[in-house]
């Protein structure tokens, strides 16, 4: 057996997202996003939390960039708030120079410190005005045109310095949590008693289609008008757990596990990376509730050659087939998800969040499966966890985070093994997250940061894992 190793030019750093850290929601001309609206609904659907102040990164970004230097990061993944750049969002709407100036300062601050910027264009914060104007992601034609214009503005204004672009963060979560369960903004659902509008049988599939075509339009624009001059890379970050059969002896459970991953990942990766229709199992189950790609859609998909697969990975699960036919609101592929298998073996060690168990062995299988299926270099664009009990800890207790350190170490080992033993190309790793921040509908409870955020004083304190990640990586190179 060879020694597990990471390539010498392995890219690594930490990740964040605009609404989770920036605050300053009404400053310098920023328009509202669907998350501003969602966090201020009554009764609350976000445990009373909102991003009005968050980590106040908008005012403290210099201090946060200095943390990256202290941690030795080579790269930093952040997201751009669409409604800071174009407050009303649309292709005929005005630009906001003050919002553009903020990201210019952030990008220049990174470059001055020798840190490579990785910019995500969309991390769930759709301009509220587009939702009001035409239903946002429910309007396939309008949304892709507006997204292309927004992407072009970012390439024009930032692309001389930003050479690494991610179009969408987790379109699955946007589509399913935003339009099926209603747990995330815009909170539409026909199965959630807190939601007043929505159709969980159809809307998530439309919202997914809009994001795929928006991604394709942005990449096609980059390839046609910017790539030659700017020489950057562009990809998309997909979430998706790995699934093993609940009953290891059952071929039906094995098929259920595969089906579950097709519903998670193939949904987006088939059209984007393979330029194929949605997976057969999705067509079979969803019929014409799943939109179709026209021949002109396929032309755009073909012009949208995407450079890398951004992988957000946190956990794995077991899949068990369902015997009854699926309901019209099922989005799992008629599969039950479990955290223990038939023998009662837990899928992994518990973290500080119910849905997240540490499963590095299945992470390696996941990496290898994704690389073999889609054939693109993989960048892990998110990976991390809250430690057990961390939400109740004082700062002094939380900075000592052996669970997180072990999580990083074991997941880096899985990456190294997938590279050296399975032949995958894995080119980078971003830990989620640079600092504790707004965990969406879970509010400020779960702490994913490598930096402790004191939400009363907004003081930042490095946890031990922050200072150790460099060593974890360089010792494997
Ligand atoms: C990702 N799940 O979301 C997001 O990209 C981040 O903004 C977020 O803070 C991070 O992971 C941690 O949650 C997810 O329930 C949210 O399986 C929920 C799930 C997965 C990913």
UniProtKB/TrEMBL annotation:
One of its GO terms (molecular function) is cellobiose glucosidase activity. It comes from the Eukaryota. InterPro entries: GH, GH_1_N_CS, Glyco_hydro_1. It catalyses: Hydrolysis of terminal, non-reducing beta-D-glucosyl residues with release of beta-D-glucose. It is an enzyme of class 3 (hydrolase). Keywords: Glycosidase, Hydrolase. Residues 184-205 are annotated as: Disordered. The keyword Hydrolase applies. PROSITE patterns: GLYCOSYL_HYDROL_F1_2. Its EC number is 3.2.1.21. Residues 187-199 have a biased composition (Polar residues). The keyword Cytoplasm does not apply. Pfam families: Glyco_hydro_1. Coiled coil: none annotated. GO terms for biological process: cellulose catabolic process. Belongs to the glycosyl hydrolase 1 family. Plays an important role in cellulose degradation. Shows hydrolytic activity against several glycosidic compounds. This is beta-glucosidase.
């Amino acid at each position: 057996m060879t020694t597990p190793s990471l390539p010498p030019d392995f890219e690594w750093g930490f990740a964040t997202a605009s609404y989770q850290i920036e605050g300053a929601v009404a400053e310098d001309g920023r328009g509202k996003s669907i998350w501003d609206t969602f966090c201020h609904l009554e009764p609350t659907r976000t445990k009373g939390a909102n991003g009005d102040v968050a980590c106040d990164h908008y005012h403290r970004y210099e201090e946060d960039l200095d943390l990256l230097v202290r941690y030795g990061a080579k790269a930093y993944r952040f997201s751009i708030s669409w409604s800071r750049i174009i407050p009303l969002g649309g292709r005929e709407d005005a630009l906001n120079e003050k919002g553009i100036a903020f990201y210019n300062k952030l990008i220049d601050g990174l470059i001055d410190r020798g840190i490579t910027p990785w910019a995500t264009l969309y991390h769930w914060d759709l301009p509220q005005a587009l939702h009001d104007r035409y239903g946002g992601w429910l309007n396939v034609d309008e949304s892709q045109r507006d997204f292309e214009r927004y992407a072009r503005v970012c390439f024009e204004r930032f692309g001389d310095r930003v050479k690494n672009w991610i179009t969408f963060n987790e379109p699955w979560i946007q589509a399913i949590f935003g339009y099926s369960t209603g747990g995330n903004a815009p909170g539409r659902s026909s199965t959630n008693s807190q939601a007043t509008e929505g159709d969980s049988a159809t809307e998530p599939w439309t919202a997914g289609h809009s994001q795929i075509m928006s991604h394709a339009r942005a990449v096609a624009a980059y390839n046609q008008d910017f790539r030659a001059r700017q020489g950057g890379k562009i990809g998309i970050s997909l979430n998706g757990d790995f699934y093993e059969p609940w009953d290891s002896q059952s071929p039906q459970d094995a098929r259920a596990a595969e089906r579950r991953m097709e519903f998670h990942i193939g949904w987006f990766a088939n059209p984007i990376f393979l330029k194929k229709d949605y997976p057969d199992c999705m067509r079979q189950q969803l019929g014409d509730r799943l939109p179709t790609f026209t021949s002109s859609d396929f032309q755009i998909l073909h012009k949208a050659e995407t450079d890398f697969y951004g992988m957000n990975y946190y956990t794995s699960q077991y899949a068990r087939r369902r015997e009854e036919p699926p309901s019209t609101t099922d989005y799992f592929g008629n599969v039950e998800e479990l955290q223990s298998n038939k023998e009662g073996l837990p899928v992994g060690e518990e973290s500080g969040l119910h849905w997240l168990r540490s499963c590095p062995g299945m992470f390696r299988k996941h990496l290898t499966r994704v690389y073999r299926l889609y054939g693109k270099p993989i960048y892990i664009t998110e990976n991390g966890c809250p430690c057990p009990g961390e939400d109740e800890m004082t700062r002094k207790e939380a900075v000592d985070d052996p669970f997180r350190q072990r999580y990083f170490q074991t997941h880096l080992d899985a990456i190294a093994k997938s590279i050296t033993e399975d032949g995958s190309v894995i080119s980078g790793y971003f830990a989620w997250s640079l600092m504790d921040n707004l965990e969406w509908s879970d509010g400020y409870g779960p702490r994913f940061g490598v930096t402790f955020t004191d939400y009363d004083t907004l003081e930042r304190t490095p946890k031990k894992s922050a200072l150790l990640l460099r060593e974890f990586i360089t010792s494997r190179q």
